Every structure is written in structure tokens, then in C-alpha cells.
């Protein structure tokens, strides 16, 4: 096929995919039936490049780059035949209208049924109150979506706001109910104009899916509102209260800290080979960072583009070394045969990913939060004076109730007090409560104090796991610090933060939009302290 025909064909593929994503903003990308990307929380680029249709997607968890060779329309779905860099065999991906695999009709019917069940359950559980205005209509202006049923319980001039989510909704929707509940309570208070006093918020979660909401609710300000949590059994139509202040101790654990210098020394030979493939003039821009005791990576403004991994050999006690290049799901083992492709990729990467790059370039846009993290590491004390950048830990792996979490940045201030730093490069409605999750986990680990044999004092779990060597970690409650570009802070974030308990000492730093070039704070907000 002639070059012009190839470009035209690639452009047509890109147009079909782009049109589909524009028509289905809640689409999901599946691989073998598993959701890889929920497009509501994913950024993407579909372009024609050198006669190829290039599909790039990225979010907080992963990124993907594939060449699309064929697109097939299947009912409401698109089947994409794609090829990874360096791979000869095509792989199938599927774009579907929503990550919720129910048909729109079935989904709407289930939500209407749930609303009727909820209304009956509320009326039976609160006979002295009137159930008023239950609805789940979309209200984008105030961030309310159709997955949540919201309404009011009226008792004369007194009232409570009510919000509920059904068991058929996704885990992300269920976990997001408290954010929307706070916003609904605030909305009701503003609209009441003094005619009614909205004293509290009743949140209804599915049975067996209430723990995240309970842990978060325990750290809301009881003086700001009376918060109550219930579960609803949709079969028996019974509401059951949950004592969110007594949900048991949060069990958290840390992976042990490793020696960064030892990890880099182990990987030094492989790093030197990879660095030789980087354009010589750009080598000073490379960040070399250990990922574990046996792995280190090369990064450019937070984007890891190559790595070295030490692995046990198949036999004996010797170790082998694996080198790879590419980001995330597109990591490709480095061989003599594909060194040329690696050099080409790195040349393009370094030409695109710099502070003066263009927003139309996918490599410039990729993983903006990792870029923000790399800038924050360098400018931490300018953004949050008093923090210790010499003790800064990035992407600390911690486990809680069987789930693995990664703390963006964790450090101490000059008084030894822990500081949780959560970053967002893009607008996120749920930022405050997601950050609170990390704060709760760090608090629990700090409160887990034991005195090892021979120790002069009780040590926190962080100290026992080897973090903050040489420093004493204060037993005080951690600080919660959030940073995001000013124009990317969701308008609702400050409302939600305003309902945090006084024990959660938070600070929000709004950064200038030119943060890739200069980390400058344009305004700050702090939580009130009692």
C-alpha cells in the first residue's frame, strides 16, 4: 500500500475511534472481557503517525500505547485489532459504551426499582418523618449522577438529607457515595434559605460494601452535621444502622524499606547500557530511581521509560538481568534486534516531553501526575515550607484490609510530624476523601507503636520498617497536604474538605498552571483548627 493510502487508512481508523469516544463519554476499554480503562477517568489520544493509527490511553494506574490495524463495528461496541510495539501478533481490544455491562434499559429499570425499595424502607424505618423528593436525575451542574438516589426526610422545620446507592452499581460508585452525600447536604442547606434546618446526612450503602464509607465518615466533623450510615437489604427492604465509630481497628501494614543505593548499585550495569541509548544531549535530564531492592528505572519528568530488573536464574543461585523499555503495559524486553526501535522511541520522547512541549503531543501529556510528583520532589519546601525533602518517600506501598495502596508522597516536617502529600494534575471530585483514605492509613501505622528489644522508646510502624532513618517520628496526628493546579481543582473539593473533623489538619495548595516550568503557589486554603 502506498504511503498516502496508508496514512488515509490510519486517519479513517482514528476518526472512527474518536467519534465513538465522543458519542460515548462513559465508555470502557476491555481486554478479554476485563475493564482496562474507564474512559470517564482516562485521558486518550488517537492520531495518525507515520501511516499508523496510534491509540494512547493513560490514567493514574496504567498507560497503554497500541497501533490499531483494524476496527470492526459490533452492535454498540467497537472491536479494535491492535499491535504492541515490537510484537507481530495482533491483540483484540473492545470499546463498549459503559463499564456497566447492563443494557441502558436494564440499568435504568434497576435504578427505578431500587428507588422504590428505598422509599418504602425509609418510610418504614422513619415513620415520624416524611420522605420527600427522592430522585436520581442527572444534575451535572452540581455533580450529581443517576447512580445515586437523593432526597430528604422532613420533620416539620427540621430535615435530614438522604443519599443512597444500590448494590448493582460499581465499587467506585459505591465508594463515592459519601462525597456526593456531603455535596447533597450542602446543596439542601443552601436551597432551604433558612426555612428548614438540615441537621444531618443519612447515607445508605449496600450490605457488605459499607466499610470504606464508614472509615471515612468517622473523620467528618460531628459538629457540622449528624452523620448516619445505614445498609439496605434490597430483598427484605430492611435498613440496618452501622456504627461507623466502632468498625474495629484498621489493620494496616507496610512493605519494608529497601536500600536505594544498594538497588542502584545492583542495577548499575544495565542502567549504563540503557543510558547509552538515550540521546547524548538529553542524558542530564534523566531521573534514575530505584523501584525496589531488585529494580530501578529511568524516568523523564516522572514517566518511566526504561528499567532494569534483577531476577533469580532458572537454576542455581546466579541472578539474571532483564532490561526493558516502554511505559506501563507497553514495556518491551530490550534485545539487540530492537535497539534501533528503542533509540527511535527515546529520541521522540525527549523531543516531546519538556516544559515547552505542546499539549497536542501524547508523550507530553502522558502521566501528568507523575510529572507533577517529580516537580514536587524538587520543589517540596517551596510549596510546603517546613517539610523535609531529604526524607521524602515517593509511592510508599501500604496495605489495608487486603487492599494495596500507594501513598503519593510521605515525609516529616521539621518537628518530626508525618505529612501525607496527595497530588492531582487533573480535576477530581473525589480527591478529598481519597486523600483522607491515605491519611487514615498513615495515622494507623503511626499509632502502631512498639518497643523492639533494646530500643529506648516505642517506634512507629514506619520506623520499624526502616523509613525515615535517623529521624524520630512524632506520635502527633499526620498532616494532610493536597496540591493541584489552580484551574484543575474541582469546585466541590473545598466544600468536602470543610466537613472534615478538626483532627484532620489539612492544607490545599493551588499551583500556577505553568507548574511544569515553575512550582508556584497562587493561593492556599487551610482547615480550621479547634
Number of helices: 13
Query: Within the largest sheet, what's the order of strands?
Result: 2-1-7-6-5-4-3
* Number of E strands: 25
Top-tier CATH class of the largest domain: Alpha Beta
Low-confidence stretches: none
Query: What is the CATH-assigned architecture of the largest domain?
Result: 3-Layer(aba) Sandwich
SS class: alpha+beta
Named CATH topology of the largest domain: Trna Endonuclease, Chain: A, domain 1
Shape: globular
Would you give an account of this structure?
By secondary structure, this protein is of the alpha+beta class. The mean pLDDT is 88. The longest helix has 22 residues, at 104-125. It has 13 helices and 25 strands. The chain has four domains: 3-96, no CATH class; 104-242, Trna Endonuclease, Chain: A, domain 1 (3-Layer(aba) Sandwich); 260-365, no CATH class; 368-526, Trna Endonuclease, Chain: A, domain 1 (3-Layer(aba) Sandwich).
Features:
Trna Endonuclease, Chain: A, domain 1, 28% helix, globular
Short characterization:
With 530 residues, this protein is of the alpha+beta class. The chain contains 13 helices and 25 strands.
Topology:
Blueprint lengths: L2 H21 L4 E4 L2 E5 L4 E7 L2 E7 L4 E12 L2 E7 L7 E6 L7 H22 L4 E6 L12 E8 L2 E8 L5 H5 L1 H16 L4 E10 L4 H7 L8 E8 L4 E5 L9 E3 L5 H7 L1 H8 L11 E6 L2 E6 L2 E10 L6 E7 L6 E2 L5 H14 L9 H4 L2 H16 L9 E8 L2 E10 L5 E6 L7 H17 L13 H4 L14 E7 L7 H5 L7 E7 L9 E6 L4
Parallel strand pairs: 10-11, 11-12, 22-23, 23-24
Antiparallel strand pairs: 1-2, 1-7, 3-4, 4-5, 5-6, 6-7, 8-9, 9-10, 12-13, 14-20, 15-16, 16-17, 17-18, 18-19, 20-21, 21-22, 24-25
